[in-house]
Amino acid sequence: MNSSVCPEESSSGQIRRLKPQEFEAIRLLAYKEFGLDLRRGKEELVAARLSKLLRQGGFTSFEEYYRHVTSDRSGKALIGLIDALATNHTSFLREMPHFEFLRAQVLPGLRGRTRVDIWSAACSTGEEPYSLAFTLCDAWGAEAFRNVRILATDISTKALAVATNATYPSQRFVNDLPAAWLPQFFLRGEGRWKGWYRVKPGVRGLVEFARLNLVEPFSHGNLFSVIFCRNVMIYFDNPTQELLINRLAECLEPAGYLFIGHSESLTGVRHSLACVRPAIYQKPGAVANRGVKWPT
Q1: pLDDT value at position 41?
Q2: Known catalytic residue at 40
Q3: What is the pLDDT of residues 80-93, one digit of tens each?
Q4: What would the pLDDT profile of 111-136 be if each residue is shown by its tens digit?
Q5: Could you tell me the CA-to-CA distances from 34 to 22, 28, 162 in Å, in that order?
Q6: Is 154 noted as a catalytic residue in this protein?
Q7: Catalytic annotation, pick one of 49, 94, 204, 230
Q8: β-pair partners for 251
Q9: Which among 189, 213, 221, 275 is least buried, having the fewest CB atoms inside 10 angstroms?
Q10: Domains defined for the chain, CATH in brackets
Q11: CA angle 10–16–18, rounded 5-degree value
Q12: Out of 27, 94, 117, 154, which one is annotated catalytic?
């Protein structure tokens, strides 16, 4: 996880450490609810990320906060814990070779279909699904707006709020995107929004955002030609990785592609996919007929 960490401070200024039993309780809860594998050595990270919630709620200890989360029947406290612990580091066109492969090797075989479904399964603050939308629009033009749907999901409600708003400071992407894409896909802010850019409405319309916990059962009712699930499995243990990969494979159409993060590996994970490039896998089977429309 990427974070600038500092231990929580009590009202007296003394640093309050996360007790071993408190860390263990929170660790088990995070693993059970969203598959996060918090290993030993993450105590200060957890304390730093949860300290704001303790202060906001007036809790005097991590144990008291834990009891509040587990007894809250509304689920809001658990969502707050998830938002605090989830890592949302991302960028536009992150891991560029994936987008180059998508454009050169995958998209030509999908062009001409009535419907193309793509899933960004851990979309964070939206840079990945919008990068997919930009790539499709740049390659296919108006055809992308007629035939493409991008589903973007994440467990963090905080990240999804940013993604849905689709407004980013220029320093987040000025060096990541082709210069021609800025006027093509963004509205430039003025006045107090100077230095900010918002994805144009038409492009935003290609992406549908939804909250999804990847360790819970899911069924979309349709198959995807492409799934991006990158840089999330590094926080899961091997059994959780294996369960997720096989669920994702079930959501791929025959010959569909799964992209994982370059820092991730499926070594030791049993699955039915074929590795075609580093961090790129393909489901066995014949390519679906052109023009096919999957059920919604």
Answers
A1: 84
A2: no
A3: 998 888 776 789 99
A4: 999 999 999 999 999 999 999 999 99
A5: 18, 10, 21
A6: yes
A7: 49
A8: none
A9: 221
A10: 20-85 (1.10.155.10), 96-282 (3.40.50.150)
A11: 135
A12: 154
